[in-house]
Design goal:
This protein is an alpha/beta fold. It is built from six helices and five strands; from the N terminus they run ββαβαβαβααα. α4 packs parallel to α6. It is globular, with a radius of gyration of 15 Å. The N and C termini lie far apart (42 Å).
């Protein structure tokens, strides 16, 4: 994987894996792979696994594989909650990925911000500390901030 960031001891965010990346994840003790790509998404590089191939290889490696398609233009509160529910339910550690790691990072950070009671600036600060360039992804940063402002306990009165 070209992009890989540990968000916590139990959750790592990454870009789409190769077969070797998936084998390394299994060897490192990951138990679950949560793929947020849509099945019809083009591969970011020829050596990256398509969702169906990834599911087959994950099973061979003893990894639990789930696919929850996240299309940026279709992200709503229900989809963020669904990803959060899957994150909470799956066996850890979990590798969460999309094509380049941006959607996966956003979905995980929204979930963690609500779980930890972070404010939107704290959540975006955590994203920046993880290596995300929020300024170059204003639509994604806005989506994260707005979700956190609506749902984080930090804003509940």
């Amino acid at each position: 994987m070209d992009f890989q960031r540990a968000v916590s001891a139990e959750i790592t965010v990454a870009d789409a894996p190769t077969a070797a990346d998936l084998a390394a994840a299994a060897a490192e003790g990951y138990r679950t792979v949560l793929d947020l790509r849509a099945p019809e998404e083009p591969l970011p590089a020829p050596d990256r696994l398509a969702p169906a191939d990834e599911a087959r290889l994950a099973a061979e490696l003893g990894l639990h594989y789930e696919n929850v398609p996240v299309r940026l233009e279709q992200v709503d509160d229900a989809l963020v909650r669904r990803v959060g529910e899957r994150l909470a339910a799956v066996e850890k550690p979990v590798l969460v990925h999309c094509a380049h790691g941006r959607r996966a990072g956003a979905m995980v950070l929204m979930h963690l911000a609500v779980e930890r009671g972070l404010t939107a600036p704290q959540c975006l600060g955590l994203a920046k500390a993880m290596g995300y360039d929020c300024e170059s992804q204003p639509q994604l940063a806005r989506l994260v901030a707005q979700y956190v402002e609506r749902h984080s306990p930090a804003y509940q009165r």
